[in-house]
Amino acid sequence: MQPLVQRTWALRGQTPCLRHSAKRLRRVSAIGMVSISPQRRRLGCYFLLDAENSIDEVLVVAVLRQARRHFRGPLIVLWDSLQSHRSAFVRNYLADAPDILLEYFPSYAPELNPVEYLWADSKNHDLAQFCPHDADELLNATEKALSLKRNDQHRIAGYIRQTKLPLRLHRATLSI
Fold it and tell me: Which of 66, 72, 112, 157 is the most buried (most CB within 10 A)?
């Protein structure tokens, strides 16, 4: 990851300078989900980071298996049209998992996906002006930034509200 440079403040005549090695670092791949409990009282934020591999169909199925173990009852999964989501391997897994219902976002509509707001919040606030020396340092910083958001009900509710999707959340618990 090259440093994500954001506008900042500094004393007049003291321009901030980010120092980093010019070589391109390995990247950190991420897969994540935002969950809403059936009673709409609890929100969750789950993610998996990998500095070695890109997100592929094997990892997508592993995450779906983990979600089935974690959540009771049927799952409704809203996701984008990423190639690994539509692969034959994933379709074969889903054929044997009737308790997972799929809904797709429109072709290119990241503004409807609450996870995109999680990624943007982390990149633009927690990781802005961050110059990692290697992929492991980037992985650790990203893990820390996302972990702080994991149980923040109001922040997760904000990501959902940003989408403008017609999802109703329990007002007493989330004060939305």
Answer: 157
